[in-house]
Amino acid sequence: xxxxxxxxxxxxxxxxxxxxxxxxxxxxxxxxxxxxxxxxxxxxxxxxxxxxxxxxxxxxxxxxxxxxxxxxxxxxxxxxxxxxxxxxxxxxxxxxxxxxxxxxxxxxxxxxxxxxxxxxxxxxxxxxxxxxxxxxxxxxxxxxxxxxxxxxxxxxxxxxxxxxxxxxxxxxxxxxxxxxxxxxxxxxxxxxxxxxxxxxxxxxxxxxxxxxxxxxxxxxxxxxxxxxxxxxxxxxxxxxxxxxxxxxxxxxxxxxxxxxxxxxxxxxxxxxxxxxxxxxxxxxxxxxxxxxxxxxxxxxxxxxxxxxxxxxxxxxxxxxxxxxxxxxxxxxxxxxxxxxxxxxxxxxxxxx
Length: 352
Ligand SMILES: Cc1cc2nc3c(=O)[nH]c(=O)nc-3n(C[C@H](O)[C@H](O)[C@H](O)COP(=O)(O)OP(=O)(O)OC[C@H]3O[C@@H](n4cnc5c(N)ncnc54)[C@H](O)[C@@H]3O)c2cc1C
Fold this sequence. Notes:
Distance between the termini: 50 Å
Largest sheet: 7 strands, parallel
Radius of gyration: 23 Å
Bound molecules: flavin-adenine dinucleotide
CATH class of the largest domain: Alpha Beta
Number of strands: 17
Shape: globular
Number of helices: 7
Helix content: 10-25%
Order of helices and strands: EEEHEEHEHEEEEEEEHEHEHEEH
CATH superfamily of the largest domain: HUPs
């Protein structure tokens, strides 16, 4: 149902100081690519529904872009009550300045309790800019949001490398909260909603932007961050020594894979710290995770659950990681990896 009910102009916005009692709604920012919603948005929709139920408000999606009216499509299955759509040719690609401008005007006029943003490249740029503009509260990479009987909102986030949890109280509305959506499973709402669509008219002045995206370059799949990669090779203590890395690197280039590692592998400096996978590192969700010489401590497996196909190479058939494996090759990774590379070379084109 299209419902052109949401007209926002800069003049209509309300100063934040008057927002103490704002709405109980929970908003989420919808990222999209190539005319499609990213899965992360469905997870945010789910999270927004859960929080809106706790607060007694509505779950609302904000979609910004050039032609995005069709995007709310299946958000109703994830409990979204309403989608506010802002279309403008100047919003075709993400620009921090323009998107913050649009979101700030929407938030100021409707005063939600919480605005959820995925902790993605765009989200990590958008959230702090918007918080500064609105003088709102910000919590990054939260793990849980709680609402007390009086409707006060607190969030939890891991600190000190995952060894402690901080509880953060939102002193100003809205609470802008980023979350690592890879930590969330995907499940449809118990009760589907017929998402209302509202078009917001916001004046965009293309001249105000001081930066502009002029081109996108496709990343080398081996160089992308493990949390974004389609294929990941994880290496652990079983690698034995740094000399054995060359064979793993070769396999990575045949597969177009990004290399990550367990904490033992990063402690040995075989893999850079920012490529650590696990509780104190990155969460991954590739279509293939090739797990070599990693035992399967829960600190590691916690962050690999969303990997679609888990293939394990380990000398120990009883290593804990075996319980998670879709496929296991019991053997010495120093022998298995070169053999895999040889056989795969015949069926896939190497990336170099
Ligand atoms: C607070 C805290 C946070 C932590 N955070 C993380 C984290 O974020 N990520 C993380 O990974 N760990 C983390 N850890 C460490 C974690 O508990 C484990 O110690 C670590 O994951 C083990 O790494 P590993 O599997 O590489 O090594 P090991 O446990 O030593 O396992 C090596 C595996 O390699 C196999 N192997 C040996 N030789 C070969 C061979 N030639 N070929 C094939 N297989 C072979 C062995 O059978 C074994 O299964 C954390 C620990 C703590 C206390």
